[in-house]
Amino acid sequence: MSDASRQHGHRAPQVIEPQGQVDSCVIWLHGLGADGSDFVPVVPALGLSAGHGVRFVFPHARELAVTVNGGMRMPAWYDILEMNLGRRVEESQLRESAAYVHALIEEQIAQGIESRRIILAGFSQGGAVVYEAALSCEKPLGGLLALSTYFATSATLQPSAANQGLAISVHHGTQDDVVPLSLGEAGAESARALGHPVEWQTWPMAHAVCLEEIEAIGEWFMAHLKG
Q1: Per the confidence metrics, is the pTM higher than 0.90?
Q2: Domain CATH number, residue 36
Q3: Are the C-beta atoms of residues 172 and 204 closer than 8 Å to each other?
Q4: Is the CB of residue 71 less than 8 Å from the CB of residue 65?
Q5: Rg of the Cα trace of the chain?
Q6: Is 47 exposed, middle or buried (0-12, 13-18, 19+ CB in 10 A)?
Q7: Residue 126: closest CA among 85, 83, 88, 76
Q8: Which positions are annotated as active-site residues?
Q9: Pairing of strands 198-203, 72-75
Q10: Total of domains in the chain
């Protein structure tokens, strides 16, 4: 188990290494009730070039009691207190998860990866965590990918100057009945209001990912990690 995971009480992440030398990293967080293996099958579908050098790190959330699911314990980055449009969440737990992501970033830096060659990605709950983690991180990052998610801490974020203007790509399904499209749009607008260049893309899907989206994500990764 990695030091970061041990210190924060998480299982060691699932890691997919590239062929050849590693020169960059994507840390990708899953959604509620899933685990780090959820997005592993996406990696081959990204269409990355041979010798891309990107390490993929897929952390596992701890099991928490989730209020909106009747207090059932499941893998969760934070508790969701209400499923109304405002999505009232346990922000202290969300920030604990963001601190874990910061520790994973430091671990990659210690292994020789420059922080600007690290991208944070997250789906649904994981996306809410990486919004917080990326925009509060004291090390400059390479980008933020927010999938079918919302910016839960937009009103209380303490932004870091190191990531002022960080590039953000936001994707959302037009038929999403778990995280409404309006929540995704509001998150993107909040990020723009903070001065970030935000790419917004919608796809004809529910609360999921689709092949065309995955291919677009792969192109975005290469555009922001080239060189």
Answers
A1: yes
A2: 3.40.50.1820
A3: no
A4: yes
A5: 16
A6: middle
A7: 76
A8: 124, 176, 207
A9: unpaired
A10: 1
